Amino acid sequence: MALSGVEIFKLLPKTNCKKCGFPTCLAFAMKLAQRQATLDACPDVSEEAKKVLGEASAPPVRPITFGSGEKAVKMGEETVLFRHEKKFVNPNAFVLEIRDTEEDATVEAKIDAVLNSEINRVGQLLRIDGICITNESGDGGKLGAVAEKVATKAPEVPVIVNTESPEAAEAALKHFTGKGAILYGVTEGNAEKMAEVAKAHKATVGVKAEGLEALSALTEKVKGLGVEDMVIDGGARRAGEILEQNTLIRRAAIKKSFKALGYPVINFAQREDGMYEALVAGLGVCKYGSIVVVSSAEKWKNLALFTLRQNIYTDPQVPMQVEQKIYRIGEPTADSPLIITTNFSLTYFIVSGEIENAKVPAWLAVMDCEGLSVLTAWAAGKFTGAKIANFIKESGIEEEVSHRELIIPGYVAILSGTIEEKLEGWKVTVGPREANAIPNFLKQKVA
Q: In DSSP terms, which residues pair with 97 in a beta bridge?
């Protein structure tokens, strides 16, 4: 049961040492009670207090690691219902389903689709995170054969084994022992045998039931069998059911500290229509799904879902941003153009990408505007003529270029006069308003 801030305070050292980052032990206790801090921030807490507070300060959604090595995915550990309250912590995993009834060529193609799904978007590597091997045939031998193929071709990719048969589970999981696999298909009827298989292969279990009451009873049963790590499925398949169940599960875990539902949720979004599947998968991303299983991995769908996930799981109070500095695009010389923009990640990657497309080496001055885009930063008074002039003076770029010309974004053409006043001897050129016009602009400039 959750403890109040005062109850937690009684167990703390009460030294007000500030080592935890808070001014007093009472302030730290209140943050612990609100699940906005973790106990390990206090270096002086006693072992006895750790035992008492450990469970109380644990995140309401149990953290689970799916897979192992560099491609392992951490999920759960969420503490809020809405991202503006704090932020969502661990992005969901996208998992591609491979059925053991599919042709060998289809299986091979799906494995390749997972391995080749990685893209770089605003500095982050995004990909299909795992493979779900489904025992559609009911034949343990077929499931084991597909599992062996996946383990051989994609040894680093996290895997879900989807079957209700303990024998088939054994045949497949032996290829992923100790690799953080998930054994999905644990029900009221097979829980004892499936728990044994999962423990033997050090796998997380995926429990499934019809409805939240049956689901919470099943998680308690599985926990009593000695299995702590679970992902849960209350049987929702239609979009409305997914929305309702996922919300109720998160509310029970966050607001009521209901441990029986305090686990990451797995959603199955497979649909024959790709657009419909993308919409259902997107619902899982937005509304608390920790694993979203899809049936295909077309590039258009991947890009849409990856972008949605990236947006949902960024901190809304801290925009994505890159380091303030002068970036070399290509191999610029002293005569190469000098362009300035803000440090909003998306702005930087779009502008730098268009400069690369132009195949014109250039210097890109990226100014710290607290992660705001050009127009937003200008409106907020963070991308002004005076500040741009100071940045250019302090950046050291004057020692790198032989010219004194600065190209500014077209949307802030109004700043050109102020910049020239502050940057003595410099000429300001107004560049394109839209980034996609940069290649033609640069090519004409150096022609």
A: 132
